[in-house]
Amino acid sequence: MATLLGSEFSSSGRKRRNCNSNIVTKLTSSKITGKGFSRGTQLPGGLLQERDKPAKWHGIPDLLQKLHESSHPNSDLSHAHGYLKSLSSQLSVEAMSFVTEDRTKAQESTFPNTYTFDLFGGVDLLVEILMRPTLTMQKKKPKMNDELVKDCLSVLYNCCICTEGVTKSLAARDDFVLFLFTLMTNKKTFLQTATLIEDILGVKKEMIQLEGIPNLSGLVQSFDQQQLANFCRILSVTISEPDVGNDDKHTLLAKNAQQKRNASPSRAEVNQVTLLNIPGFIERLCKLATRKVSEATGANFLQELEDWYTWLDNALVLDALMQMATEEAEQSSTESSDESSLATSPLRHRLPQSMKTVHEIMYKVEVLYVLCVLLMGRQRNQVHKMLAEFRLIPGLNNLFDKLIWRKYTASNHVVHGQNENCDCSPEISFKIQFLRLLQSFSDHHENKYLLLNNQELNELSAISMKANIPEVEALVNTDRSLVCDGKKGLLTRLLTVMKREPPDSSFRFWQARAVESFLRGATSYADQMFLLKRGLLEHILLCIIDSGCTSRDVLQSYFDLLGELMKFNIDAFKRFNKYVNTPEKFQAFLTQINSSLVDSNMLVRCIVLSLDRFESQTEDVKVMEVLSECCLLSYVARVENRLSFLFRLINIINVQTLTQENVSCLNTSLVILMLARRKAKLPFYLNALREKEYTEKYPGCLLNNFHNLLRFWQRHYLNKDKDSTCLENSSCIPFSYWKETVSVLLGSDRTSRCAIVSYIDEPFMDLDRDLLED
């Protein structure tokens, strides 16, 4: 083959001018088809040198050929390392430009040296060099020079970020991916290895199985705290369910179908179990999440931190500097790898204080993310028990004022969405991950009371005693040795900063979600009063009515929180009426509710349920007084207003568009009808729906849509214990009554006044019968 090419290049001048493209074309073709040359080093050296300058290859093919010849088994790799360094110096310039110039796509024209390196087989050659010790039959594996390994890994990473397709080709080699994890045992090559693995796993089609990594438990236990924090960046890819990136896939219809197809645990779930089985893993993560950092002072601290982050486009340069500090500390006097060695390093002292802080913050972001994912997994109770035992919450409470929400934090943050993958600064990412962790920790779990201190727990007990109601069991069972220390618990600190946030701050969304999760589940009067005493209701109403907040996400989170805060609580409705004390304020509140029922329907459900309970307490003077005075309760008490809510709730959803976010609209409409059924008014409401259809001139559409929604409801909820428990706890309506009401509404007897079919005229029956068919 080489002879054939040689004769072609010795022919006419026209062909000689085209020989560069011929070589490139043949090499490219061989990569795609697997036929022909396996790498450019198989070409004659003289030919490569002849064509180098016209083709602007900058000697890269020639250097690769020399690297190949000097890296055979049992050869002296010192010469090979020299050639690799020459190659690395050319490629690193392009990699640095990729990082500093914020390029979004790797192109041949932008990074010609890296492209040439890959084209002539450089990537495959480096993989072969790295893995060569694993291929020997000798009992004692030959050890490669650490610096050579580091340079190989760095060049491979440069190729990944500068040349399209390299990362995917490496990800397709399972043997190489698993081999990379074995390199992490060497501290000197750990950083380069971790960086490359993180990049590869980010594009890998199939999630890697952690149990396939040789001696994973021993590997993780060998890491020092800094290495473990870095390793969390890798773990985050292996324990999170992949984002399908398509809204259609997020519909409940699609999710249910996928669950039927994939009944066994996903790879992410299996990986979570693998991690939890590693001795001491969760304890070390808790220590990482809660360890203290030297504090910076000065009015320009935040600006300095942001300036550093602008330069440090990712963690690579920062980690490299910190690694230099570690190595200098080791060379000076000690071989210790713990935090004290970093603290005594002269180089570390020369690093700006803000860089040390942002370094710790970036690590904590990854650690909190891993803990958050584990908290939301199938092993939630096991994780909860460990996080409580290792005092994660008290530790975070001690960091709150000094690191998590420092007084230096500016109040004019750019609004960021609630996507955990949001491309924002470490400061913002850290706060969002912290709030997501609190939300996951508190949500429907008795350990939520660990967010308080002993004094605050006593306050809850006193509230229950004054109201002459029993303390909730979870509060009684709380281990007080594991609660927060200090003058304030974590929940109280969160409320304090929540009130200071600007109207459209994205933190408000996450703050409200975290506080709401504390209230979710079976309604606790004491929990509500604890928050009401701290002015939470007035703050929420200020945000909804008076602050000019326009963010739908923030408003939705505040509506949901307000619903949990007011549910069944007559004191909350009295406070509401005191704040909303003019027709203008009440109208502004209604406008916000009606502007998007998807966002506000949980609050509507709370008001309807509360009104129903208050109306049964006619012997209570206080209740009757509030019922007669509260503008909100009076508004919902009017049947025409409840019907208006019902019409719109049914009309804004259908089976194809149901998601985890808007399925609450279906459940709220069911609550309205269940309460009507209790009072024997279900036929009145169904007839009103029928009249609405004819008034709007679309007979059958509304009721057929509702019929389909209820059929889906049966499929969805009758197979999911968790969802049914949530419905029962949040509404105080037994789930058996939910099921019974749905069955009655779906009855096939057209003579039944409580069956939907009896209100649909025959010509318009089952307009969408096939929508649920498999």
From TrEMBL:
Listed Pfam families: DUF3689
Cellular component GO terms, alphabetical: Cul4A-RING E3 ubiquitin ligase complex
BP GO terms, sorted: ubiquitin-dependent protein catabolic process
Molecular function via GO: phosphatase binding
InterPro entries registered for this protein in UniProt: ARM-type_fold, TRPC4AP
Protein name: Transient receptor potential cation channel, subfamily C, member 4 associated protein a
Species the sequence originates in: Poecilia reticulata
